[in-house]
């Protein structure tokens, strides 16, 4: 007997945008498979937490295998896990490069490949990745080459996968945020960060959650890079 309740995988789910996404999906009665390195068990029977580094394929395999064992299906994958290292280009170390590539690119590759294989069996599904508006709108004073290199790749992969899977009932989209008010940004930086946006404020976690929820319900939208950036990508 099939279970009609939908199931979402959220990576980078322990705090900030990821935690907001878990709540938003639960508010819509989705069952959630939540992953991050440090995520703790949940008291909610409809939230399965799996701790581990998404860059490790074995962790991605566990997420899908244990999620299917508990909930029986995978309807949506949100690739939210990511690392942002702001340094001048020539100051990046080999370790910086390896770490950012591992989480932002390998992490995306492993879990997306495994999730899509299950969605294809169902004949339906949705993948949405959280990237960055910096891909389209570089900002003087915010050095971000590794973010642009990796998240720009995800934007391109989003469009490629959208076309590859369009006739198989699977949609693929991305949300490109501006700077979002999360614990990673100290309060004393907020005024500077707000001024980077034409609307003169930072984004809220709820802004990104709303965008992801829109895309998840928008059955005629695929291959879209939805900018949720206070106008950054339009100009400054």
Return the CATH topology.
Rossmann fold
Cα-to-Cα separation, first versus last residue: 54 Å
CATH architecture: 3-Layer(aba) Sandwich
Strand order of the largest sheet: 3-2-1-4-5-6-7
- The chain-level structural class is alpha/beta
Query: Mean pLDDT, rounded to whole units?
Result: 95
Number of domains: 1
Low-pLDDT segments: none
Strand content: 15-25%
Q: How many β strands by DSSP?
A: 7
Q: In angstroms, what is the radius of gyration? A: 17 Å
Number of helices: 6
Order of helices and strands: EHEEHEHEHEHHE
Q: How is the biggest beta sheet arranged?
A: 7 strands, parallel
CATH class: Alpha Beta
The CATH superfamily title: NAD(P)-binding Rossmann-like Domain
Helix content: 40-55%
Question: Which shape, going by the Cα principal axes?
Answer: globular
Describe the structure.
This protein has 236 residues and is an alpha/beta fold. The chain has one domain (7-177, 205-228): NAD(P)-binding Rossmann-like Domain (Rossmann fold, 3-Layer(aba) Sandwich). It is 40% helix and 16% strand. A seven-stranded parallel β-sheet has the order 3-2-1-4-5-6-7, sandwiched between helices. α4 links the parallel β5 (125-130) and β6. α1 (16-27) packs across α6, α2 (57-71) runs parallel beside α3 and α3 (94-122) packs parallel to α4. The longest helix has 29 residues, at 94-122. It is globular, with a radius of gyration of 17 Å. The chain starts with 6 loop residues before the first strand and ends in an 8-residue tail after the last strand. One of its GO terms (molecular function) is oxidoreductase activity. It holds the Pfam family adh_short_C2. It comes from Dyella soli. This is SDR family oxidoreductase.
């Amino acid at each position: 007997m099939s279970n009609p309740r939908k199931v979402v995988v959220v990576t980078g789910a322990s705090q900030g945008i990821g935690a907001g996404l878990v709540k938003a999906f639960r508010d819509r009665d989705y069952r959630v498979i939540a992953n991050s390195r440090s995520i703790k068990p949940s008291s909610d029977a409809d939230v399965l937490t799996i701790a581990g580094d998404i860059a490790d394929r074995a962790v991605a395999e566990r997420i899908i295998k244990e999620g299917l064992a508990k909930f029986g299906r995978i309807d949506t994958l949100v690739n939210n896990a990511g690392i942002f290292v702001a340094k001048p280009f020539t100051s990046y170390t080999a370790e910086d490069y390896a770490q950012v590539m591992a989480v932002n690119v390998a992490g995306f590759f492993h879990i997306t490949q495994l999730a899509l294989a299950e969605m294809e069996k169902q004949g339906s599904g949705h993948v949405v990745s959280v990237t960055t508006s910096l891909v389209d709108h570089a900002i003087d004073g915010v050095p971000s080459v590794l973010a642009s290199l990796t998240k720009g790749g995800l934007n391109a992969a989003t469009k490629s996968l959208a076309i590859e899977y369009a006739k198989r009932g699977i949609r693929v989209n991305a949300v490109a945020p501006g700077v979002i008010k999360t614990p990673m940004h100290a309060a004393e930086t907020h005024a500077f960060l707000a001024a980077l946006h034409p609307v003169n404020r930072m984004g809220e976690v709820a802004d990104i959650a709303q965008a992801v929820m829109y895309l998840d319900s928008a059955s005629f939208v695929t291959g879209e890079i939805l900018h949720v950036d206070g106008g950054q990508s339009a100009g400054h």
